[in-house]
């Protein structure tokens, strides 16, 4: 059989300007599609032990007695441990940060001691020779429980009749108020005031690969190697080091292939910390892979907000002010180390974000409940802020009898108004709301679509169009976590190594989660150095190998990691030319590198193949002048400095058909025009957007973690928890405006979360646009058939 | 999760199977599309799985006075059979709604009926078609009409030591199968399996009770209006995670309205 080769570039690709902006197929796609990916669970070690957890069946209960006698006698069992035993080896933590003023959370242990605070919290661990044997023994653990009152509803949590953590006095984890002043006056003089309350269901990110960790403690050198499905290997290295008492340099975290993350794999999980501690305790490798059922019980959940929002505007449609009151529930602990206060904080920061009003007031309460913890999941806070902003803007359009696109046009921040400070205090470098709006309306042929919608209405077919303008936080500076005391790197480094055969190895702190990070790093490196992309190999996800970095989150991979690769690539190119100048006895300024050759810069005449240069520099430096040293490994770092965040912007549209008899929503089409700055690989960017849109549609129509009044998760499986599936998804049309950020040379703003940020709002507005002639409106996500039928008064 | 350990046997004959089924904790394994997940979730812990897929007399479709479909015939085979599509189209239509192709390739007619999930497609079809279930045991054969086979939630007339060998369906060309599922391939919120011939209509609902439910009043009604009224007495669907009983009844009425013309047009 012949060797299967990936094409170097997609048909039609222009390579005159290097690979930036080209749809280069990524090298790892073929390996993954051939089933040759290597995930944490694929690893086999001698003496590998497996852990399974005994989890609380109650939402809130005191553990009066744990009896391990029968479990310890079960075949294959190596040990059974409770929270106290593991706490000897693993220090507890607290999910608070200094810049979220007043945020509080109790100490959390790797395995809960005495009390479980949500259904699914682990209270004991069984280590056995196989996972099946560990599960057998879990079934033999005997426990006496004393059920405690569970706080499930967030209004009850806020009221605080039952306090989950008595030492805190109430159930409030964090609250924030923001006021520009003048809000009441703006509402008093407004011609139109609209108010509505929106509910956002609690949901979770469902990764194809569940959480997985294999910890291998080596007592001989007091070192710990952790193979971990994670987005942030260096953050985890620091955490394992500090909480297990092992010097940082002795801890190595390796993220092999990771099967999707979406923010799920960027947090500290108690069961994963326990796994690492058990490896230290037992002095052997121990593996934990969350199965699907325990993923639903223990992977972070997200959202669950109830938001009252008011908007004031003039009769000409000028928005004067937003007034916001957000209540959100996070489970019994603020998650370490990023805290569970960020999502609510983002809602306060971003609500009203695309618009030019000057008055803004917000109030936000984050409360504890006895459900699984929530934390940062793809687009953190954005889907809430965008949906409630865009829904109340559409509500105002309805009131004003104004076309929703026109109302937006009148209020979007002008494209020439930058730099711009938004009333919440955030600063925008340069956005392009009007250009994205214009492009969207053209792309979807808005006028014709409105005419088609009207025709269908006459025929009794209920269709709706929804728009959602958005801003998106990307490329965070230390303002996100570092200033609050979190040991989470805002900088990322890249090392580029020139190999003897003329190939380039790239090592970067940003990780690959399946989204194609390594692919774009190869494109950037190839373009920067002057080699073809097949000459580049990328290595990520190993603290023992790559430069230090934050990893993958907050749409930072391209903008921060990519910039570091670019800077290192340019430096390497210069260093290679130093060698070439010496070998060729020419002036460096006369030389350049094009397609793996050193060439004359003016004539492009080939002077020296890079493979030959590599041979000389590595194996025959004796032929070079005695005072010359080649430097063919280069490291550069990058941290955004001028702005706290680089903001991207965009706008989405959804076209739906609602069946008023069944309450079913059919998604007909979806559009997204995004300004992510420099687009490095259009194909990957579009797929990122499409995947994000689908997750946003999940929030709007399908996904919700349903809890009973006793705090039991009712739908924690793939049959009952509805993730969006391909059959129901519409075609998603993507287009781009490119306003590169001037903070970096690459100009990429980041795009990983944009789709998820805008889609729920667009779908919500489309459904309400369809329902408007029928006198119905829905405000609680997900929009199930029943919720739509109730709004239509059919039941 | 990992399944608890169990023994496995694959008999080559019915006699051998009956021997094995007498052992304590024995359970029949056919396509495994419901049983294997339940093992992996530790919801079920049989001591012995008796894999009947090697018994050739349980396979195949025989066309005679009635349609006799062996218990081991898969959903995919039913979906693709030209004979079934022509002569018992209800089954072919229903098969296309069962889960996803990978599941339809392994899941069997007998497995679905013997499990008796009230939300599944075949039990309602069997009821609407008044199918005859052929049960075999060491003592011989019992022929049970679908109306008496489904006893309760996941409960059937099958006795210990018996297995479902085949199902006999009458030819009924006029039929309607409709279901509402939020995602293609999910268990339906509610579904309708209806047939009509010279002797009248038989309309059954899935997802409408502990067993598939024959809507007797609605079936006998002379107008849609009467039928819709009667349906409220025929079924009392249990709420599910996302839909109240009232919503499901409303949706059942929508399906009834949509099927009515098909099941009513004169020959």
Mind explaining what this structure looks like?
The complex is a heterodimer of chains A (795) and B (267). Chain A has 795 residues and is of the alpha+beta class. Chain A folds into three domains: 27-37 and 491-638, Aldehyde Oxidoreductase, domain 4; 41-148 and 206-298, Aldehyde Oxidoreductase, domain 3; 379-474 and 642-791, Aldehyde oxidase/xanthine dehydrogenase, molybdopterin binding domain (Aldehyde Oxidoreductase, domain 4), CATH 3.30.365. In chain A, α11 runs parallel beside α19 (754-771) and α18 (682-702) packs across α19 (754-771). Chain A is globular, with a radius of gyration of 28 Å. Chain B has 267 residues and is an alpha+beta fold. Chain B folds into three domains: 7-53, 2-Layer Sandwich (Uridine Diphospho-n-acetylenolpyruvylglucosamine Reductase, domain 2); 61-169, Uridine Diphospho-n-acetylenolpyruvylglucosamine Reductase, domain 3 (2-Layer Sandwich); 182-262, CO dehydrogenase flavoprotein, C-terminal domain (Enolase-like, domain 1), CATH 3.30.390. Chain B has twelve helices and 14 strands. Chain B has helices spanning 14-21, 35-40, 75-80, 82-87, 89-95, 101-106, 109-115, 121-128, 146-149, 216-220, 224-234, 245-264; strands spanning 7-9, 26-29, 48-51, 61-63, 67-70, 132-137, 140-145, 150-152, 155-156, 163-169, 174-180, 190-197, 200-206, 213-214. In chain B, the strands form four sheets. Chain B has a five-stranded antiparallel sheet. Chain B has a four-stranded antiparallel sheet with strand order 11-12-13-14, sandwiched between helices. Chain B has a three-stranded parallel sheet with strand order 1-3-2, with helices on one face. The longest helix of chain B has 20 residues, at 245-264. Chain B is globular. The model of chain B has no long low-confidence stretch (mean pLDDT 96). The A-B interface holds A 130-132, 135-136, 139, 291, 293, 661-662, 664, 701-702, 706, 714-715, 717, 719-720, 722, 724-725, 727-728, 784-786, 789, 794-795 and B 1-5, 41-42, 180, 182-187, 189, 241-244, 246-247, 250-251, 254.
């Amino acid at each position: 059989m012949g060797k299967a080769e990936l094409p170097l570039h997609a048909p039609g690709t222009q390579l005159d300007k290097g690979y930036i902006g080209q749809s280069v197929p990524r090298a790892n796609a073929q390996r993954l599609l051939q089933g040759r990916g290597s995930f944490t669970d694929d690893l086999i070690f001698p003496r590998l032990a497996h852990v399974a957890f005994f989890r609380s069946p109650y939402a809130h209960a005191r553990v009066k007695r744990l009896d391990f006698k029968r479990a310890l006698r079960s075949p294959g069992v190596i040990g059974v441990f409770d929270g106290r035993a593991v706490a000897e080896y693993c220090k507890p933590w607290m999910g608070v940060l200094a810049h979220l003023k007043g945020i509080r959370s109790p100490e959390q242990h790797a395995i809960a001691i005495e009390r479980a605070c949500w259904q699914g919290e682990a209270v004991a661990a069984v280590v056995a020779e196989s996972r099946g044997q560990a599960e057998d023994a879990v079934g033999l653990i005997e426990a006496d429980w004393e059920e405690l009152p569970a706080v499930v509803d967030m209004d009850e949590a806020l009221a605080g009749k039952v306090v989950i953590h008595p030492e805190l006095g109430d159930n409030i984890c964090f609250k924030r108020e923001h006021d520009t002043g003048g809000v009441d006056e703006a509402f008093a003089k407004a011609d139109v005031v609209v108010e509505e309350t929106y509910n956002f269901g609690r949901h979770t990110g469902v990764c194809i690969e569940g959480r997985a960790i294999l910890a291998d403690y080596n007592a001989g050198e007091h070192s710990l190697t952790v193979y971990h499905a994670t987005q942030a290997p260096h953050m985890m290295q620091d955490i394992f080091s500090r909480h297990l008492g092992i010097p940082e340099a002795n801890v190595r975290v390796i993220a092999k292939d990771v099967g999707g993350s979406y923010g799920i794999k960027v947090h500290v999980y108690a069961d994963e910390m326990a796994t690492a501690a058990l490896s230290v305790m037992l002095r052997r490798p121990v593996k934990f892979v969350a199965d699907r059922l325990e993923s639903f019980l223990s992977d972070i959940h997200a959202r669950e907000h109830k938001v009252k929002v008011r908007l004031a505007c003039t009769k000409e449609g000028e928005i004067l002010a937003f007034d916001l009151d957000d209540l959100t529930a996070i489970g019994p602990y603020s998650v370490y180390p990023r805290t569970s206060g960020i999502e609510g904080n983002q809602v306060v920061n971003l609500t009203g974000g695309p618009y030019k009003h000057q008055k803004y007031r917000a109030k936000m309460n984050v409360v504890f409940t006895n459900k699984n913890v929530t934390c940062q999941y793809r687009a953190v806070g954005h889907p809430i802020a965008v949906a409630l902003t865009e829904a109340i803007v559409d509500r105002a359009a309805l009131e004003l009898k104004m076309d929703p696109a026109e109302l937006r046009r009148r209020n979007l921040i002008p494209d020439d108004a930058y730099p711009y400070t938004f009333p919440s205090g955030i600063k925008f470098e340069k956005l392009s709301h009007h250009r994205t709006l214009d492009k969207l309306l053209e792309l979807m042929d808005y006028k014709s679509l409105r005419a088609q919608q009207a025709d269908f209405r006459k025929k009794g077919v209920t269709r709706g169009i929804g728009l959602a303008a958005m801003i998106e936080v990307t490329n965070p500076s230390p303002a996100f976590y570092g200033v609050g005391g979190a040991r989470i790197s805002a900088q990322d480094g890249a090392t580029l190594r020139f190999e003897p055969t003329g190939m380039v190895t790239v090592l970067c702190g940003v990780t690959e989660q399946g989204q194609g990070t390594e692919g774009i790093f190869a494109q950037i490196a190839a373009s920067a150095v002057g080699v073809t992309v097949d000459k580049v190999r990328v290595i990520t996800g190993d603290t023992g190998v790559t430069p230090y970095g934050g990893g993958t989150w907050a749409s930072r991979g391209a903008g921060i990691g990519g910039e570091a690769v670019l800077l290192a690539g340019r430096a390497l190119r210069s260093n290679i030319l130093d060698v070439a100048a010496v070998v060729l006895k020419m002036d460096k300024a006369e030389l350049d590198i094009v397609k793996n050759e050193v060439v004359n810069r003016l004539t492009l005449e080939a002077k020296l193949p890079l493979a030959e240069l590599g041979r000389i520099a590595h194996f025959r430096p004796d032929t070079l002048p005695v005072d010359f040293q080649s430097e063919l490994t280069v490291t550069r770092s990058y941290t955004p400095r001028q702005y706290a965040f680089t903001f991207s912007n965009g706008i989405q549209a959804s076209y739906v058909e609602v069946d008023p008899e069944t309450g079913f929503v059919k998604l007909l089409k979806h559009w997204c025009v995004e300004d992510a700055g420099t687009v490095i690989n259009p194909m990957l960017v579009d797929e990122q957007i499409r995947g994000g849109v689908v997750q946003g549609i999940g929030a709007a129509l399908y996904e919700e973690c349903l809890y009973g009044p006793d705090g039991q998760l009712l739908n924690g499986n793939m049959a009952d928890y509805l993730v969006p599936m391909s059959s129901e998804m519409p075609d998603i049309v993507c287009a781009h405006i490119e306003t590169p950020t001037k903070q970096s040379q690459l100009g990429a703003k980041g795009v990983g979360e944009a789709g998820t940020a805008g889609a729920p709002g667009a779908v919500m507005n489309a459904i309400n646009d369809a329902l408007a002639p029928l006198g119905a409106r829905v405000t609680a996500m997900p929009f199930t058939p029943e919720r739509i039928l109730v709004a239509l008064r059919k039941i | 999760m990992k399944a608890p350990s169990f023994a496995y046997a694959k008999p080559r004959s019915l006699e051998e199977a009956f021997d094995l089924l007498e052992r304590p904790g024995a359970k029949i394994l056919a396509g495994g599309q419901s049983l294997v997940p339940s093992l992996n979730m530790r919801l079920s812990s049989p001591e012995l799985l008796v894999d009947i897929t090697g018994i050739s007399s349980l396979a195949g479709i025989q066309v005679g006075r009635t349609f006799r479909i062996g218990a081991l015939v898969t959903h995919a085979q039913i979906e693709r059979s030209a004979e079934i599509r022509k002569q018992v189209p209800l089954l072919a239509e229903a098969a296309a709604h069962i889960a996803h192709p990978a599941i339809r390739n392994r899941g069997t007619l007998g497995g679905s009926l013997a499990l008796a999930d009230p939300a599944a497609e075949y039990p309602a079809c069997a009821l609407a078609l008044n199918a005859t279930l052929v049960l075999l045991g060491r003592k011989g054969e019992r022929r049970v009409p679908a109306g008496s086979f489904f006893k309760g939630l996941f409960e059937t007339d099958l006795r210990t030591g018996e297995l479902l060998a085949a199902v006999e369906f009458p030819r009924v060309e006029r039929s309607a199968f409709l279901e509402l599922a939020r995602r293609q391939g999910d268990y339906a919120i509610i579904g309708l399996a209806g047939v009509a011939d010279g002797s009248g209509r038989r309309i059954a609902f899935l997802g409408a009770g502990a067993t598939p439910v024959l809507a007797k009043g609605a079936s006998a009604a002379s107008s849609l209006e009467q039928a819709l009224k009667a349906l409220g007495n025929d079924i009392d669907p249990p709420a599910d995670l996302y839909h109240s009983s009232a919503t499901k009844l409303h949706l059942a009425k929508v399906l009834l309205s949509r099927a009515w013309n098909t099941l009513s047009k004169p020959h």
